[in-house]
Every structure is written in structure tokens, then in C-alpha cells.
Amino acid sequence: MNINYTYYLKLMDILEEEKKVRKSHIKKEQENLDEKSKEYKKNGYHEIIEAEDYQLTSENPDVAFFLKPYDLIPKEFYIDEIEKVIEKSIYIPYGMEIGATKESMRYQFQLPLHEKAWYCISYCTKHYKNACCYSKQKGRNYLMIGHPRMDLVNLDLKKPKKSNN
Length: 165
Fold this sequence. Notes:
Elements: H1 5-42, H2 56-59, E1 63-66, H3 79-85, E2 88-91, H4 102-109, H5 112-116, E3 119-122, H6 125-134, E4 142-144, H7 148-158
Parallel strand pairs: 1-2, 2-3, 3-4
């Protein structure tokens, strides 16, 4: 067996450097999370509780907020389970839905959460019109009030640009 040790050692150096970069990135992310958590608490909110530690019946919130309509969350947080404990739920789309195929309309407007939510947030006229057309509720439980993510972008776009002078 003929091993090129120079190549092997160089590869090991690259992998070690990669580990250092990853560790540095993870440390920065943790510091950022810690800072956000301090800010969150300073503003009077409770600690963030992981889903597996959250006891829905003992916390007894007034409203449940959903960001994803899919079943990629723990089963105890599906709308069918939530509605047993919480009377009102609001769905705020995580992203800006696009696509006009029959399948994409199903994912955007016809999943159980879309039907059972007290309100679903619609971010523009086109989205609201699609909800009126494709949702089982025919848009009756949709509110067109904007999108939290886009509202931040719109605010940022309104800020005067700094000149480089």
C-alpha cells in the first residue's frame, strides 16, 4: 500500500481548521442566543421552554400560535390536540407561500390547521383571494394584516440610506 503522507497530513490540517471554525461559529451562535434570551427576559417575558418540557394543560395559554401547518412538530402540538385544551389558535405562515399547482394550494390552504384555526394570517391581497377560493373555510377565518417577516423588511426599506461620504 502506497500512502501519500504529505497529502494525508495536509488533509488532517484542513479538517482540524474546519473543526476550529465550526467551534467558533457555534460559540458565537450560543452567545447570540444568550443575548437574545437576556433581552427577552428584560422585556418581561418568561424563559423559553422547549416543546418536550412544555406542559400545555398546566400552562393553559389563551391562544396558540402556529408557524407551520405541517405535521413536522411533536404530535401533542397538532391542531387536533391543541384545540382540546386551547379555544383559539392563530396560524402565521412562516414563509411567503408561492406556487399555483393544485398540490401547493393544498399545502397552503387545505391542511387541518387552515380549517381549524381561529384565524390564519394573510399577507397580501393575492394570498387572501387564494384563501377565499381554495380553503375549506373559503377565507372566513383569514385576516389580511401583513406578514411579520415582511413588516420588518418593509420598515428597513423605509429607513433613509446612509451615504458613504
